[in-house]
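INTERNAL AUDIT FORM
Audit reference: QA-55
Scope: verify that the stored structure record matches its stored sequence.
Auditor: D.O.
Record contents follow.
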Amino acid sequence: MKQTTYDLSVTTQGPLYPPSEIMDEDGNFIVIGAINHSIDDRVEANWTGAIVSPESTVPDFGEKAPYKILELFSPDIPLPLHLADKVLHTLPLPLPCNNYPMVFAPQQYPDANSDVRPSYPFHEAPIPDRRPEHGRQLQRPVKLHDWIQAQGKLRITLEDEARIARFGSVRHFPFVTLLSNALSGNAYHRTLI
C-alpha cells in the first residue's frame, strides 16, 4: 500500500478554452490557472490569475493562442479591492472562446448546442431541477475573495499492486473555507484498470 497527499490549488479553469468556468459582471473571464501568453514566437502557459477578454483569439482544438489579458493578478497574495469584490458569474451559452463542441447524451440534453442563455451571478443562477422545498443554497453574491479562500488536501492510497486507488475520505479529504453547501465530504473509490 502506498499513500500520497496533495495540496489542491484553487482554480477557475477547466480546459484552456473557454479560458475559465467563471466570468465577471462585464463578461470577462476570471482565470486562475494556466494563462496563455506570448514569449518570443511561441505560446506558453504560466499558473497565475488574470482577467481575460472574451475577444481572445480561439485556436483550433488542441492548439494554444495567447489570451487577451486585461489584468494580471496573483491569487496567492491579497487581491486589490477592485478584484476581490468581483461577483462571480456563470458562463453564458453558447460558450464564448470555445474550440470544441458540447456533447451530451441525447436523452440527457438533446438541444445543448442550440441553447442560448445569459450569464448569471452564481447566487441567482437558475437551477433546472430545483424543488421549492430545497430552497436556494447561495443567498448572497459570491465574490472572487470568497473563491480564493478555499483550501483542500487529497490523499490517494494505492492498493493491490496499484490496481485499486482510494481517493480520500471525510477524514483524509479535508476542505476548508469552501462556499457554504457547495460540496459535501464524501469518500470516492475507483478501481483502476
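Auditor finding: record pair retrieved intact. The chain has a mean pLDDT of 83.
Action required: none
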